[in-house]
Specification:
The chain is mainly alpha-helical. Helices cover 65% and strands 6% of the residues. The radius of gyration is 18 Å and the shape is globular. The protein starts with a helix and ends in an 8-residue tail after the last helix.
């Protein structure tokens, strides 16, 4: 049986996780502001760059845990900024492929510096990083399992 103390500790951990994530997001946004992109833009550029083979909006949606219509709007804005190109697949006409433009490649390169995040993460030893990575993967996977039990996010 779960005790109030256990629930309070879970709530405290949840709060600390959120505080750490939001503080790091602010540091990342501050770093990206001078190059004219948001954290979400940087994430899309990274996904497109790191994915082997063709990249689709659905693929990006799954990686970002965002609804397809949200990613579609984001991709439209990024295309207007000249960061990426969307084109119909030559074989499957109902599929859109996403590629980086030359400008997108340059912005991606500049966005990879991540100096504030590297300074923050440098306070963890390699062993602490490995432990944190394993713990976060476990939490992510369990949260996705829990979420999939519900009626929303059928695209995941």
């Amino acid at each position: 049986m779960e005790t109030n103390a256990a629930r309070d500790q879970d709530y405290e951990l949840w709060g600390l996780l959120n505080q750490a994530a939001h503080a790091m997001e602010r540091a990342r946004e501050d770093e990206l502001r001078p190059i004219g992109i948001s954290m979400m833009h940087a994430a899309v550029l990274g996904i497109v760059k790191a994915t082997k083979g063709p990249v689709t909006p659905a693929h990006i949606s799954r990686w970002l845990f965002r609804e397809p219509h949200t990613v579609s709007g984001l991709l439209q804005r990024m295309e207007k900024q000249g960061l990426l190109k969307r084109a119909k697949d030559l074989e499957r006409k109902n599929v859109i492929r996403v590629t980086l433009t030359e400008k997108g490649e340059e912005v991606y390169r500049r966005s990879r510096e991540m100096k504030p995040l590297r300074r923050i993460m440098s306070h963890l030893s390699p062993k602490e990083r490995d432990s944190l990575r394993a713990s976060l993967k476990t939490l992510r996977d369990k949260a996705l399992e829990e979420h999939r039990r519900g009626p929303r996010w059928s695209f995941l």
